[in-house]
Each structure stands twice: as C-alpha cells, then as structure tokens.
Amino acid sequence: MILKIVTLFLIVMGVLAMFGKLHWLGGKRLSNAKCRACGRYRIGKGPCPCGKDDRA
To answer: Source organism's superkingdom (predicted)?
Structure first.
C-alpha cells in the first residue's frame, strides 16, 4: 500500500514539474530575470543594484 502511495506521489510531482516548465502556464524564464550588464539575478521588479541595467 505504501509503495502505491509513494509511486502515485512521484508521478504527480513529475506531472507538476512538466507543467511548471511550460511558459504559457506561468513558468518563469530565468534569462529575463538577469541583469544585462553584470549578469546577476534580479529579485522583484526594481532595477539591478549595479545601476547599469536600463530595464526597470
């Protein structure tokens, strides 16, 4: 019984991971979250702390 539950859990988690990678369902692209100037990941919608990225 436990083996069935664990197997079902792993299958459900795999399906959720596949849906998370689909960009039209809200998956995020990490390349858009990087600063073009320094390459650091930006958190939030504000500018990069380096001050060189023109995106806000």
So the answer is: Bacteria
Tokens in use for 17?
A: 């991971």
Distances (CA, A) of 27 to 1, 17, 23, 52: 34, 10, 4, 27
- pTM assigned to the model: 0.42
User: For residue 14, is pLDDT > 80?
Assistant: yes
Q: Quick one: CA torsion of 28, 30, 35, 36, rounded to 10 degrees?
A: -110
> Other CB atoms closer than 10 Å to residue 47's CB: what's the count?
14
